[in-house]
């Protein structure tokens, strides 16, 4: 899915620019350009939406077809080996460089290594994390999502199957459940401010459900459309099964024909988010209405950028070709390393040049820090991430093979409930597809409201 690698690259670039702009004060001036730079944290919802899309897709397929869901053990092992080795390396480097007095603090090490630092209400560090690790708050959110996804997927599947074996009815019930999940983020925002403001709640998973739900809904629609098309090809459509004239396929065709409109909506939402509607940045509590506006606008930006990349037309599109270019694919592959290393690279450069925070030189610092970050990310991808990925495949290969061998038997539930033999003939994803779908990057760095 090359286009999604390209979206990941765009988000990685945006967040790197955002952090350099903050450190150099380019995002702190009172003008529209600075306001745009100050909203670079919109990359967080984009990454969360990608995770929701790619990781929930196998669960959505299982829910729609009445199959057994992916192995939780295999899924969690792959997630851990995908995320933790490179992250642990950066934690050790950052702590060694800048947290000398706390190197013997066992509690701190456990919190950091297990991605639990955002749950420390009274930390010894200032801001979102120890020096060089502040961006890892979003990785903590991702980790919580990884752990809870099988449970959330099971609840959504149970609700969908209560609607009977009909594909359309199950898909609509899944989307309804995801709508409720998205709405819970706005309820959480209210809880954050009432009865008293508790800023640490901004860095917990419930606030981000709306962003993950955007991607999860796209996963449902893409699988729904795929099954509509498969049923039409099999020639076994029922009264409610309309093949390429079905609602999901019509939506996919509409997206393919109007990618520019989605991008325009995303751009307008981003511009509005940079306005006073979402409050001032980095100056204390903005208020609950500003926070609710930010949630809605950031979710719109994520949907506008990810949707036309996730639902590309058969002939492709200029947007898809740009995202799938060689440069964008490369940046997408190393984007996790860009996320991990950017603050280490930034602070090392500032220490080396003896620059003070908010001292200017945005363009020059961006070039140097960007190049240094990209170098570290490339090395980490080659020597840490790729070996860990191969280890994950090796560790889970026997279990995956067993599950692949039992896929036919998992259709018995739906076949007993209705005569839907077309499901038996529907081509399922290959193991390569499944592995690709579970290799999404983590959420990127940003500073939520102080």
Textual characterization of the structure:
- The protein is mainly alpha-helical and 450 residues long.
- The protein has 18 helices and no strands.
- The longest helix has 44 residues, at 362-405.
- The radius of gyration is 22 Å and the shape is globular.
- The protein starts with a helix and ends in a 13-residue tail after the last helix.
- Residues 400-450 have low confidence and may be disordered.
Short key terms for the protein model shown above:
single chain; 450 residues; mainly alpha; disordered C terminus
C-alpha-based Rg, rounded: 22 Å
Shape: globular
Q: Which residues form runs of ≥5 with pLDDT under 50? A: 400-450
Kindly report how far apart the N and C termini lie.
36 Å
Q: How many beta-strand elements?
A: 0
Helical segment tally? 18
Sheet with the most strands?
A: none
In which range does the helix fraction lie?
A: 55-70%
Q: Name the helix and strand elements from N-terminus to C-terminus, one letter apiece.
A: HHHHHHHHHHHHHHHHHH
Summing up helix and strand content along with how strands pair, one would put the structural category as mainly alpha
